[in-house]
Amino acid sequence: MADEKKKDDSHLDVYLDRYVLHQNDVVTTYYEGFQNAATQQRYEKINTVLANGYLYDVMKELPDVDFTELSENNKVLLKRLVNGITSEVGRALVGVAFLQLTIKSIAPDQSIRLHKGTTRRGSFSWVDGISMRTIDSTYSTPFLREQGLLNVNKFGVFMTRSLAENYPYSKLYKAEMRGPFTEWIDIVDAIEDESMPAKQGLYYLMAQLKNKSDAFNTMADEVVSLANAYKDKTFAGVSRFMKGFFNETEYSARAFEIVIHGFMQAMSESHMLGDLDLSPMSQMRSANKKHGNIGDVELKDGRVIVEAWDAKYGKPYLRDELEELRDKILTSLGVKVAGFIADSNVDRRKDVMNRAEEISLETGVDIFLFSFDEWLEYQTKRIAKPELDRIASRWLIAVVESFAQRRLEMAPIDEPCEAWVQDLISKLK
């Protein structure tokens, strides 16, 4: 391996108006500038074909595809790419590879190294580049999410900013990447040198994602069935279940948020929120300030946030969080109640409680710092026990269905949920 690296003289020359890629004894020049006429035509063709349902047609053809044209090396690369998805990394790279295979299968002459292209002034562009971000957010990501093939951010895979550097995609792409970067770049090289047939690669990648999805759906069916049959659906029983789950499962902080939002889904379904509407969960990559969010749970009157709660797992001391909350409240008029929910007892030292009172007086908003149990008591203090038990039953189903990807409108969870669902199955059994 060391000898191979010494022999590899791949490099990228960067000039004011062009990039020159030297790789595998091949020299390719990519010019910076407005899209030329040929590229505009390819871009229009790609959008037209995708708008006419190309990806859905590919999926229909999938059961009858013969993969003999795809080499074993190509199959291994694509499998390793998909298997490189973990709870935190890999999905964006898989999404980009899916997009690149799609583009190349529609327009073989289009370079899939050049991910930016436009005719507008003020934006970076390659002469032969296309806006992959636009194609992805319009067609590729919605398809992947709708079909349950890949749980990526609904705004597109290019929300991962490291994919947006102004350099061609190659092994010399130096942005800090997490996940199966080597496999992805090897796939890009194989697509470009035509050693991987793009259409076959697309079929195969889609099949791998679908197999993964089918396996998940089997688990999802099981966990929903177990939840419906679960015996102890009293409010006390479900509360204990939830605390045991989010404290024992992987990525407890995110699980805690989903458990809390699931409770409010149950309250909404039980008509306990009055005239207020529960907002869908925010995605993990959503910046709260950018998207106008105050908390993980928000109740709205029309477009106005009236009540907001932020989950804080493993953070009982909330002094800094109070300052962030103050900033958000000052930019979101209409809030009446806001606060934090900790998984354990809140650190109520004097500086924290005094600051909470100061912010409340300044903003006119009731500020609360609750433990999980205290928050549940606050939300249910006027509800009779028979109704509480009905809410508990809905709460269990809401949480399980959220993790099972059955409530994407209200709980658009982008992270792979296999580990959470497995833990829920074990606990429900």
Structure description:
- The chain contains 16 helices and 8 strands.
- Strand 1 and strand 2 form a beta hairpin.
- Helix 5 crosses helix 8 and helix 8 packs parallel to helix 16.
- It is globular and about 75 Å long.
- The two termini are 49 Å apart.
| SS summary, helix count | 16
Strand order of the largest sheet: 4-5-6-7-8
List SSEs in N-to-C order. HEEEHHHHHHHHHEHEEHEHEHHH
| Protein structure class | alpha/beta
Rounded to the nearest angstrom, the radius of gyration is 25 Å
Classify the beta-strand content into a percent band: 5-15%
Low-confidence stretches: 1-5, 285-290
What is the distance, rounded to the nearest whole angstrom, between the alpha carbons of the first and last residues? 49 Å
